[in-house]
């Protein structure tokens, strides 16, 4: 992240250069080993600038499709179609199946409408771009799905917001994602908002934690002017999701001498606990809640949305994760920049010293006789050019060149720059920042075959990244639907999808078993492509298709079947950004013309026969 957004000279600062893994001796003193001009070659920024817009260019488009029913033959149902009764039974089965499928398609349309509204209302494009940036730079991008109610609004809706990987902690004992038993998510909020969120009494937390002013005064003790934060009193707390109990099975808990008569097993395996430093009780289970009925206490400890029921999607956590390069036997993937960090450090080192070398080589050294007097020296020194004067004590000539002479600096070796250039090329290959990604080419493409080969090879990495991004967005869509089915009320849905669709939601979606929503028994939820379209490739593909299909399309159009012609013209016009309206054909008009022509030919034939 420092290479992406750090100070231009961060690599030369003592904390990095002399820290663990640094490139300078910890005991070395002074700045003799450091260049005067310090720079950072920011390849991570270029990766974000090039891959980011290519991966998400617009809001994700949710597509919900009803599952096609399986084709069941009469023989599978033990029906003999030679008997009238079996024929009637099979027709009834087909009619019932078709009726159910049409109903499922309507329900899918309702779900699709609501999810597409969510993408824009929740500003999914902005949160996704943040996640993609972190995935490129840090290796891991996250979306956290929760129920959200805007200030002053009467409705709530699921929101997938960006969660920084810095605010996520995972079970350190796990080697693979499916082995993770708990995760913790860090939040920072004003105390009053946290109190309201967890139903605590106002100012009930202030007696347990130190205020920001108190922290500032304590940190500045012994100083003349304490620095006091002019902000809200903020609370940092951790929301811990567990799949293995409330913590009673942890090794440290089992070794504790302090025993509790409380039976934690009543909470089950899938629990949530919210903790904060300095507060001696979970925020979601304050001391006064222990007197509540056991059922209420149980609900306090549960996940707000039971994502754990779907371990196949996002591994059953409230987060959707995006990463491009997995690391075996680790729950943390690697950044695409990490393999190039060594070369980046080397290039920054060389480029900084080369800048000093260029500055030194650009300086003109002038030798002036000491006896030449102050007048000549002052004239040379007063020049605006980068001159440096070297006094010469004595000379043996009388010409001007013997009084003033230019001293030639050592020539610059091009081999140094060639080495740096080759290392930078290796960095670009490792990160996928090839010249074609920039829209450049170092050599002329000699044939269409060569162009196709280069296009295919260069698209391997972006296509793989785009597919993983679409899977990530599909995962977040599914979690949003699960949250909507589990928590939303008719008042939250009616303003968005209308009263009729709300009634369908209540009877066909909310009333179904939650497991059927999780397992995709009837509906498939996917995110359509949100990446930037390749306009030239689409135009080329449409024209290639037209070369093969246009004769048949034209023949159908001349018979009045204009659907294929209009579809082709619509796609082509969209690709080249023009209005297709003037190029579309009216099938009914063509049919009418054909009928009139046929009638005219019949009339002419009849008249000709009479005359003959």
Polypeptide structure, described:
It is a single chain. The chain is α+β, with helices and mostly antiparallel strands and 612 residues long. Among the domains are: 181-316, no CATH class; 364-408, no CATH class; 535-604, no CATH class. It is 45% helix and 12% strand. It is built from 20 helices and twelve strands. It has helices spanning 2-5, 14-17, 43-55, 84-121, 124-137, 191-197, 212-219, 251-255, 294-300, 341-361, 374-381, 400-403, 414-431, 448-458, 460-487, 490-510, 514-518, 535-558, 563-575, 587-611, and strands at 62-66, 141-148, 157-163, 168-170, 182-190, 234-242, 271-276, 319-322, 364-369, 387-392, 404-407, 523-527. The protein has a four-stranded antiparallel β-sheet. Strands 3-2-8 form a three-stranded antiparallel β-sheet. Helix 3 runs antiparallel to helix 5 (124-137) and helix 10 (341-361) runs antiparallel to helix 13 (414-431). It starts with a helix and ends with a helix.
Estimated share of beta-strand residues: 5-15%
Gross morphology: flat
Q: What ranges have pLDDT less than 50 throughout 5 or more consecutive residues?
A: 222-229
Trace the largest sheet across and list its strands.
Answer: 4-5-6-7
Largest sheet: 4 strands, antiparallel
Task: Give the beta-strand count.
Answer: 12
Mean pLDDT: 81
- Helix/strand/pairing class, anyone? alpha+beta
Helix content: 40-55%
Number of helices: 20
Radius of gyration: 36 Å
Distance between the termini: 95 Å
């Amino acid at each position: 992240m420092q290479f992406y957004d750090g100070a231009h000279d961060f690599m030369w600062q003592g904390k990095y250069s002399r820290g663990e893994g640094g490139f300078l001796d910890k005991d070395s003193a002074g700045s003799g080993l450091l260049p005067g001009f310090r720079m950072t070659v920011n390849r991570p920024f270029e990766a974000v600038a090039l891959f980011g817009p290519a991966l998400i260019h617009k809001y994700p488009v949710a597509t919900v499709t009803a599952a096609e029913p399986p084709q069941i033959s009469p023989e599978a149902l033990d029906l003999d179609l030679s008997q009238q009764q079996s024929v009637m039974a099979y027709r009834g089965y087909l009619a019932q199946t078709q009726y159910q499928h049409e109903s499922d398609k309507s329900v899918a349309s309702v779900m699709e409408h609501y999810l597409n509204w969510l993408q824009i209302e929740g500003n999914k494009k902005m949160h996704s771009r943040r996640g993609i940036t972190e995935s490129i730079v840090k290796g891991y991008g996250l979306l956290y799905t929760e129920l959200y109610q805007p200030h002053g609004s009467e409705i709530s809706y699921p929101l997938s917001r960006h969660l920084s990987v810095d605010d996520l902690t995972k079970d350190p004992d796990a080697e693979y994602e499916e082995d993770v038993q708990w995760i913790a998510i860090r939040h920072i909020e004003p105390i009053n908002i946290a109190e309201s969120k967890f139903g605590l009494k106002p100012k009930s937390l202030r007696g347990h934690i130190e205020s920001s002013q108190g922290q500032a005064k304590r940190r500045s003790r012994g100083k003349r002017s304490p620095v006091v934060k002019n902000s809200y009193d903020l609370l940092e707390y951790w929301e811990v999701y567990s799949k293995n109990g409330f913590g009673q099975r942890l090794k440290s808990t089992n070794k504790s001498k302090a025993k509790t008569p409380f039976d934690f097993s009543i909470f089950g395996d899938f629990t949530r606990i919210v903790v904060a430093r300095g507060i001696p009780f979970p925020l979601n289970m304050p001391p006064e809640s222990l007197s509540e009925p056991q059922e209420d206490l149980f609900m306090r400890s549960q996940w707000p949305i039971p994502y754990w029921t779907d371990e196949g999607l996002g591994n059953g956590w409230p987060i959707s994760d995006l990463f491009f390069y997995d690391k075996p036997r680790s729950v943390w993937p690697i950044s695409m920049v990490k393999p190039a960090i060594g070369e980046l450090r080397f290039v920054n080192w060389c480029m900084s010293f080369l800048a000093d070398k260029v500055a030194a080589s650009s300086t003109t050294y002038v030798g002036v006789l000491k006896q030449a007097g102050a007048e000549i020296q002052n004239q040379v020194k007063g020049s605006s050019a980068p001159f440096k004067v070297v006094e010469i004590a004595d000379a043996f000539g009388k010409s001007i060149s013997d009084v003033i002479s230019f001293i030639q600096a050592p020539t610059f070796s091009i081999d140094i720059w060639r080495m740096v250039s080759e290392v930078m090329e290796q960095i670009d290959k490792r990160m996928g920042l090839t010249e074609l990604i920039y829209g450049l080419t170092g050599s002329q493409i000699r044939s269409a075959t060569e162009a196709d080969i280069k296009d295919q090879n260069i698209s391997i990495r972006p296509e793989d990244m785009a597919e993983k991004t679409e899977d990530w967005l599909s995962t977040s869509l599914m979690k949003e639907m699960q949250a909507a089915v589990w928590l939303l009320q008719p008042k939250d849905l009616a303003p968005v999808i209308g009263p009729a669709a709300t009634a369908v939601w209540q009877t066909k979606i909310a009333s179904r078993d939650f497991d059927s929503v999780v397992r995709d028994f009837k509906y498939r939820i996917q995110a359509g492509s949100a990446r930037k379209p390749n306009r030239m490739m689409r135009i080329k593909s449409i024209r290639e298709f037209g070369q093969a299909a246009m004769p048949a399309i034209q023949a159908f159009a001349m018979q009045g079947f204009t659907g294929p012609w209009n579809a082709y013209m619509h796609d082509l016009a969209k690709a080249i950004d023009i209005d297709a309206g003037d190029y579309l054909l009216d099938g009914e008009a063509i049919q009418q013309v054909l009928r009139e022509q046929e009638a005219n030919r019949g009339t002419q034939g009849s008249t000709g026969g009479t005359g003959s």
